[in-house]
Design brief:
Essential for recycling GMP and indirectly, cGMP. One of its GO terms (cellular component) is cytosol. InterPro entries: GK/Ca_channel_bsu (IPR008145), Guanylate_kin-like_dom (IPR008144), P-loop_NTPase (IPR027417). This is Guanylate kinase. This protein is α/β, with parallel strands linked by helices. The protein has 8 helices and 9 strands. Strand 5 and strand 6 form a beta hairpin. The protein binds guanosine-5'-diphosphate and adenosine-5'-diphosphate. The site of adenosine-5'-diphosphate has 15 residues, from helix 1, helix 5 and helix 8.
Length: 179
């Protein structure tokens, strides 16, 4: 399970785990608009508020004025062929999952040494200026910059300043899990 503020590299780490360790990325649902390059059913299931409300979600949050939630159908895809799942959540969702699944789940909290790099990363990812502004000023983004007390001592904190170093830390974590 990967959590942390916008731009800290959650999606990058999830994609790395998918490619390098053949994990199944859990596709969650959102009412926000797709970003350039995002595909329905790959990055998210893009929903309307009406279609979102019809889903049987395990948990649901509001983040920067949009709804996000995870469904049983999304989670079961990985279980069918015995692969480990990787899911990307805000810290509220991460707390919910950690409390429900306990030791069955490995929690990674991503952060950076200097938060000012985050807006640049969102910009280079192709996010629109207005979306970046709204995101950086949202209460949820501000909250997710800090490891919540509920995850202290449970989450593996990785400072993602340098992608090469982050990859090595993920590899070490994976090796420790397999022991
Ligand atoms: N609790 C919860 N959070 C989710 C879910 N899907 C995505 N998120 C989180 O919602 C937040 C906003 O996601 P997104 O708009 O893709 O922005 P990003 O963090 O900049 O990639 C991120 O913290 C995601 O991890 C979900 O199903 N449940
Ligand atoms: N260590 C890093 N150094 C520079 N850019 C990075 C690093 N890690 C991720 N990125 C880039 O920053 C942007 C945001 O990363 P992303 O994985 O989408 O973050 P999140 O899912 O947490 O919002 C992407 O364009 C990604 O390629």
């Amino acid at each position: 399970m990967i959590t942390g503020a916008a731009g800290t590299g959650k999606t990058s780490v999830a994609n790395y785990l998918r490619k390098q360790y053949h994990m199944m990325k859990v596709i969650t649902h959102t009412t926000r608009q797709p970003r350039p390059g995002e595909q329905n059913g790959v990055d998210y299931f893009f929903e309307t508020p009406t279609s979102m409300n019809k889903l049987h979600l395990l948990e649901k949050v509001e983040y920067d004025h949009h709804l996000y939630g995870s469904s049983m159908e999304g989670l079961q895809r990985g279980w069918q062929d015995g692969r480990d799942d990787v899911i990307v959540l805000d810290t509220a969702g991460a707390i919910t999952y950690e409390q429900q699944l306990g030791t069955k789940v490995v929690v990674i909290f991503l952060t950076v040494s200097n938060v000012r790099v985050l807006s640049r990363r969102l910009y280079s990812r192709g996010d629109r200026q207005a979306a970046i502004h709204s995101r950086l000023h949202s209460a949820e983004y501000q909250r997710d910059l800090t490891l919540p007390d509920e995850l202290a001592g449970k989450a593996h904190v990785i400072v993602n300043d340098d992608w090469q170093v982050t990859r090595e830390k993920i590899d070490q974590l994976m090796a420790a899990q397999q022991r």
